[in-house]
Design brief:
Order of helices and strands: EHEHEHHEHHHHHH
CATH architecture of one domain: 3-Layer(aba) Sandwich
Shape: flat
Structural class: alpha/beta
Strand order of the largest sheet: 2-1-3-4
Radius of gyration: 22 Å
Number of helices: 10
CATH class of one domain: Alpha Beta
CATH superfamily of one domain: Resolvase, N-terminal catalytic domain
Distance between the termini: 58 Å
Strand content: 5-15%
Helix content: 40-55%
Number of strands: 4
Length: 234
């Protein structure tokens, strides 16, 4: 019988897993919860997750609250995603449903009717274009998966930097130049860098709506457009 697992993870013993568990059980009450308190940087250091990977088989499903719970290492996460999917294991990400394995398969396995008429040259041209479009969509889907794991890795780097530097202190406030109206925090820099990397108005290829929905879902529209405007003025 196929099994459904819910994997939850926090990085420290002080953090709680209840929110993740509630989200997963709310999505599927039959999920078998696997809980772990360990950093998401390297899968090799996560004993419970490794046990889960060794027991899952074709037809099973693993539910995560979000991509970062699976991995905060972009290369490792993307590679594992493709490996598990190739083995027939379904992956569900409650906060990033656009990269669920079922969604990936649905969009890449769409049947394209080949054109067949009396004009063979034209048929070959049109069918060749259709094949290229299908290949482009498949590569675009892979890019979306990789970007999701890259975003998780960037968030990890941001969190490490924040912990290392500590929260803003009164001494820092005292050292702030008078008249400064554009104080840049780590979080602001993270949002701005994401906009620069992904927005088609800069170095990326995505619309503002897609970025807000899939990569900066905790950022308000007002904040997003404020920082985007600042980037254009820099």
């Amino acid at each position: 019988m196929c099994k459904i697992y819910g994997y939850v993870r926090v990085s420290t013993i002080q953090q709680k897993v209840e929110r993740q568990i509630n989200n997963i059980i709310g999505f599927n009450g039959d999920a078998i919860i696997i809980s772990e308190k360990q950093s998401g940087k390297d899968i090799d250091n996560r004993a419970e997750f490794k046990k889960l990977l060794n027991k899952v088989k074709s037809g099973d499903t693993i539910i995560f609250d979000e991509v970062s719970r699976m991995s905060r290492n972009a290369d490792e996460g993307f590679s594992l995603y493709m490996e598990l999917m190739s083995k027939g294991i379904s992956l569900v990400f409650l906060k990033e449903r656009h990269i669920d394995t079922d969604e990936y398969k649905r969009r890449t396995q769409k049947h394209i009717e080949k054109v067949s008429s009396s004009n063979k040259k034209m048929d070959n041209l049109i069918n060749g274009i259709l094949e290229l479009v299908a290949e482009f969509e498949q590569e675009n889907l892979k890019d979306n998966i990789r970007l999701a794991f890259e975003q998780a890795e960037h968030e990890r780097q941001f969190l490490i930097k924040r912990v290392t530097e500590g929260k803003a202190t009164s001494s820092k406030k005292q050292g702030r130049p008078e008249g400064s109206c554009n104080i840049k925090t780590d979080k602001v820099e993270h949002i701005k860098q994401t906009i620069k990397d992904l927005s088609k108005d800069f170095d990326g290829k995505y619309s503002d709506a897609k970025i807000l929905r899939e990569y900066l879902h905790n950022t308000s529209k007002g904040t997003y457009y404020k920082y985007k405007k600042e980037l254009k003025e820099e």
